[in-house]
Amino acid sequence: MPDCVFCSIVSGESPAHIVFEDDISIGFLDTRPLFPGHVLLVPRIHVPTLPDLPSDQVANLFANVQMLSKAVPLALEAEGSFVAINNKVSQSVPHLHVHVAPRNRKDGLRGFFWPRNGYESEEHAIAVRDRLIEVINHVTAQG
C-alpha cells in the first residue's frame, strides 16, 4: 500500500527501531510509546484490521504476540505487559498492528486514558531496542 507508513517500514523505505522480524510480521518501537519498550507488531502484508488478516496467518501472528508479551517485560524489567488491537476506531494507522507495552502497577495507565511516556533521546530508543532484540533472541532460542 503506497501511502501506508507501516508498509513503508516493512519494505525498509522508512526507518524504524526494529526489534523482531520473521516471514509473517515485523515488530518495532512505537514512536509515541505508552512507556519505553512499547512495541508494535504488524503483519508484513497490508491488511487494515484483524478481520482482514487471512486466517492461515492468525496463529503465527499471535505466536509472535505471545513471544513479545514475554520478552518485553523481561527486557524492561516490568511486572507484566499490555496487549491491545484497535480495529478502525482509535486506529491511528489503517494497517493491523498489535500493541505490546511493558506494565507496572501504578504506572499511570488507566482504562483508555493512555499517558505517553516517550524516549529521553534517540540513544535511549536505540538502547531499549537493542535490549529488546537481545531478550527476544534469548526467548525465541528457548522456544
Describe the model.
The protein is an alpha+beta fold. It has a single domain (5-142), classed as 2-Layer Sandwich (HIT family, subunit A), CATH 3.30.428. It is 35% helix and 18% strand. It has three helices and five strands, in the order αβββαββα. The protein has helices at 5-11, 55-76, 122-142, and strands at residues 18-21, 25-29, 39-43, 80-85, 98-103. A five-stranded antiparallel sheet has the order 1-2-3-5-4. A hairpin with a 3-residue loop joins strand 1 (18-21) and strand 2. Helix 2 (55-76) crosses helix 3. The N and C termini lie far apart (33 Å). 34% of the residues are buried. The model has no long low-confidence stretch (mean pLDDT 93).
Short description:
This protein is of the alpha+beta class and 143 residues long.
Low-confidence stretches: none
Order of helices and strands: HEEEHEEH
Shape descriptor: globular
Q: Which value, in Å, is the CA radius of gyration?
A: 14 Å
Structural class: alpha+beta
Strand content: 15-25%
**How far apart are the termini?**
33 Å
Under CATH, the topology can be stated as: HIT family, subunit A
Number of domains: 1
CATH homologous superfamily heading: HIT-like
Tally of DSSP helical segments? 3
Spatial strand sequence of the major β-sheet: 1-2-3-5-4
What is the CATH architecture assignment? 2-Layer Sandwich
- How many β-strands, per DSSP? 5
Helix % is 25-40%
Largest sheet: 5 strands, antiparallel
Average pLDDT: 93
